[in-house]
Amino acid sequence: MSTLSPQLEALRASAIFKGLTQDELQAVASLLQSKTYAAGALLIDVNSRVDQVYIIASGKVRISRLTSYGEETTLSFLTEGNIVGEFGIVDEKGRSARATCVEPTVFFTLTADQFDDILTHNVTVARNVLRELTHRLRQANDNIVRQLETERSHTVAQLGKLSKLIDASKSVNSTLDLDKLLGLILDAAVKSTDADRGTVYLVDSIKQELWSKVFGGENMIEIRLPIGKGIAGLVAQLGETINIPDAYSDSRFNPEVDKRSGYRTRNILCMPMKNKDGTIIGVFQLLNRKDGPFIPDDEHFIDAFSAHASVAIENARLAQEMVANERLSAVGRMASTIIHDIKNPMGTLRVYAQVMKKKSGNEEASKLADEMIHQVDRFVNMTQEILDFTRGVSSTNIQELDFAETMSAVLDFIEKDLSKNNVQLVRNTQFQGQVKMDQDKMVRVFYNIAGNARDAMPQGGSLTVLTERSDGYVKIEFKDSGTGMPEEVRKRIFEPFMTYGKKHGTGLGMSIVKKVIEDHRGKIEIESEMGKGTTIRILLPL
What we know:
This protein is of the alpha+beta class. The chain has three domains: about 1-145, Jelly Rolls (Sandwich), CATH 2.60.120.10; about 175-310, 2-Layer Sandwich (Beta-Lactamase); about 395-540, Histidine kinase-like ATPase, C-terminal domain (Heat Shock Protein 90, 2-Layer Sandwich), CATH 3.30.565.10. It has helices spanning about 5-15, 20-30, 85-90, 110-120, 125-170, 180-195, 230-240, 255-260, 295-360, 365-390, 405-420, 440-455, 485-490, 510-520, and strands at about 35, 40-45, 50-60, 60-65, 70-80, 85, 100, 105-110, 195-205, 210, 225, 240-245, 270-275, 280-290, 400, 425-430, 435, 460-470, 475-480, 525-530, 535-540. It has a six-stranded antiparallel sheet with strand order 11-10-9-14-13-12, with helices on both faces. It has a five-stranded mixed sheet with strand order 16-18-19-21-20, with helices on one face. Strands 1-8-3-6 form a four-stranded antiparallel sheet. It is rod-shaped.
C-alpha cells in the first residue's frame, strides 16, 4: 500500500477521478507510471503522437498554440490535480496544443489505451472528463477574450501614439523660424509625454556647447552648458537615453538648480535628438511626468519624434542660410557697383586733397586735407570690406605694432566724432607693448564699435575705453552709458543684417567686427542691460 500512496494522493486531488470508490482508485493507481520533467521541457506538441495522458502530481504546465505569425498564445495554465493530453484521446484527432513545463513537474501517466478503457467502462470518470473539458473550454474562451481585449487596447494606444506623432510632425513642419520651431518642438514633446516642463537644446559643434532659447515655463531665456557637463551634456556626449525615476536619489542630478529656481524636480527623461545620419544635433530634457516616472512608451515616442524634429530644424537652418546668402549676395552686388562707380571720383577727391595740402602752406588747411584723405580711404576700405565679407574673402596684413601709439591715434579721431554728439571719451589705456594685428582692419573695428556707442547715446553721455594685459591677451573694453539693448538683441548682434536702435547702416557692421576679431584669433564679448549701457570686450592674443 505504501508504494501506491503518491498515486492515490494524485488521483484524489484530480477532478477527473472525483467520486470513485477506494477500489476503483486502487485499480487506476496500479496502472500509473511516475515521470519527472525539468522546467522548459516540451511535454506535448501539436500533432504529436497520442500515446498517453499526464496527471500532474506537482508543478505547473502551460497550454499554448503557435499563431501563423510565429507568436505563442497561452490558452491556460494547469497545476496539481489537472490532467494533460486527454483531448487527443477523447476526440481521436491528435494533439491540438502544446504543453510545456513552466517549472520542474512530476506526473503520473496512463497509456492512451488505458485511459480510453477507463472512459469506456466508468461513467463517473467519463462525466468528470466532460465537465473538465467544458471548464477548460470556458477557461480558454476567457483567456482568448482577455488577450483580444489586451491587443485591442494596445492597438488603440498605438494608434493614439501614431496620431500624436502625426500631429507633432505637422506642427513642427509649419514654420521655418528656428526660435518658433524650438518652441513647437518642446510643446509637442511636453504634451505627448505628459511632462510638466522641459528644455530642447541644440548642439553648437564649434563651441562644443549645448544651447537653448526655450524654457518650459513663462520665461524664455538662453541656456548654455558644455557638452559632457550635467545630464543633458552627458546625453549629448554619449548619445544614450537617461531616464531617472527619482531625481534626488541619482548622483548625476544637481539639486542646486531647484534651489535657485524654487522648482522641485521629481523625475527626468533626457534623450538625444539625431538627424538622418545619426549625428546628435540636440537633446530633449523633460521633467516631472504627471503620473509617475517616464515609461518606455515615452522614450519610444521621443525617439520617433526626434527624426521629424531634426529634419524640421535642418530645414529651418537651411532656409535661414539661403535667405542670408541671398541678402549677402545682393549686398555684395551693391557694394561691387558702388566701388566701381566711386573709385574714380574718390580717387580724384584724394588727389585734390593732396594737392591742396601741398599748395596751401597753411597748417589748418593741411590738417583738413589729411582728414579728407583719411575719410576717403576709410569710405573706400569700408565698402571693400563689405564686399569681401559678402564674398567670404578673408585676408589680413598682420604686422607687429606699438599698440599704445596705434590706440592713441584711433582715440584722437574717435574723440573728435564723439564730441560733436556731446559724448565724453574717457581714456584708461594702461597697456604698453607690441601687438600683432592688421592695423587698418582693427582701426575700423574700433571705429565701428565707437560709432554704435555714439548712436546709443543720442542725448550725450560717456564712452570709457580701457586697455590692459589679461592672461596672455590685451583686453580692449568699450563701455558706454547708453540705452543698452534687450537680451534677445544681444544674443543676435553678430548675425548679418541685425540692427537695433538706428535707421541707417547695412546691419553687417558687428558681423564684420566679429569676423576680423576671429581672423586675429581673438575673442569678443558683449554685456548689456536696458537703461544701463553696453560693454564690448575684445581680447587679442599677445
